[in-house]
Write a structure and sequence with these properties.
The chain is an all-beta fold. It contains no helices and 11 strands.
Length: about 120
């Protein structure tokens, strides 16, 4: 059974960098052909696919966030990380780490972590 767990600060100040880590258990992040994904849901809005890192370590980003986003991984810890720079209150959301088994088939989700951007 694959499990994902997000970790990171719940409060970030405007203009700072939001950093979240997803720890994966029950499966390796290097296993073909999975994509390890970050999805967020702002209050009262729908889910937004932010980006992913592939089993081979290639990152992908949604165009609207590409200039502010970095996704990386630590294979020794079986973790992948999201960094979102220059945050504003509009980045307030529940952030999920998710496994994509291909073609946006999101089969395993973390429980989600609330991040609030506020001074």
């Amino acid at each position: 059974q694959v499990q994902l767990q997000e970790s990171g600060p719940g409060l970030v100040k405007p203009s700072q960098t939001l950093s979240l880590t997803c720890t994966v258990s029950g499966g390796s992040i290097t296993t073909n052909y999975y994509y390890w994904t970050w999805i967020r849901q702002p209050p009262g809005k729908g889910l937004e696919w932010m980006g992913a890192i592939s089993y081979s370590g290639i990152p992908y980003y949604t165009p609207s966030l590409q200039s502010r986003t970095s996704i990386s991984r630590d294979t020794s810890k079986n973790q992948f990380t999201l960094q979102l720079r220059s945050v504003t209150p509009e980045d307030t959301a529940v952030y999920y780490c998710v496994r994509d088994s291909g073609n946006y088939d999101f089969d395993y989700w973390g429980q989600g972590t609330q991040v609030t951007v506020s001074s």
